[in-house]
Amino acid sequence: MSPTQSDRTEPMLTLWLDPVCPFSWNTARWLRGVAEKTGLAIDWHLMSLAVLNEGRELPPGQQAHMRDSQQIGRLMAAIARDHGAAGWIAAYFAFGERHFDRSEPVSANLVAQVLMTVGARGALAAAVSDASLDEFVRTQHEEGG
């Protein structure tokens, strides 16, 4: 007996991403391509290297990377809050294409370009310094724990 359409389940992958992590970026790009070719459904979630590394003694270069993780994590949280999962994933890919593929540093200009790409209002740029978003980022991160 062959399975009916209702007996089949669509493959689903859950992926946790820190926006400033190059390993997350490479994995996300690769999996997006796989999903486009195979129909794989991906459940994207925000994680945070800044949360993961809280309380650790880190060299100055890594401390700067954790600040970027915190700021861009806040931005993605604000976009998710205002534009849903599809909005933050679009923002994630817009950020990654500029930051990783074009080597643009984390800056106010990069944030503005990401917001413009996803049609978010410029007022969301202030999210990078909005500590009230840290709890959302932490909750998202800990769900993957």
Describe the structure in your own words.
There is one protein chain. 57% of the residues lie in helices and 8% in strands. With 145 residues, it is mainly alpha-helical. The chain has one domain (11-143): Glutaredoxin, CATH 3.40.30.10. A two-stranded parallel sheet has the order 1-2. Strand 1, helix 1 (22-38) and strand 2 form a beta-alpha-beta unit. Helix 3 packs parallel to helix 4. It is globular. The relative contact order is 0.16.
Task: State the CATH superfamily name.
Answer: Glutaredoxin
Shape: globular
Strand percentage lies at 5-15%
Total individual domains: 1
What does the main sheet amount to?
2 strands, parallel
Widest sheet, order of strands: 1-2
* Helix-strand sequence: EHEHHHH
Radius of gyration: 17 Å
Gap between N and C termini: 41 Å
Annotated CATH architecture: 3-Layer(aba) Sandwich
- CATH level-3 fold name: Glutaredoxin
Beta strand count: 2
Helix content: 55-70%
Unreliable sequence segments: 1-8
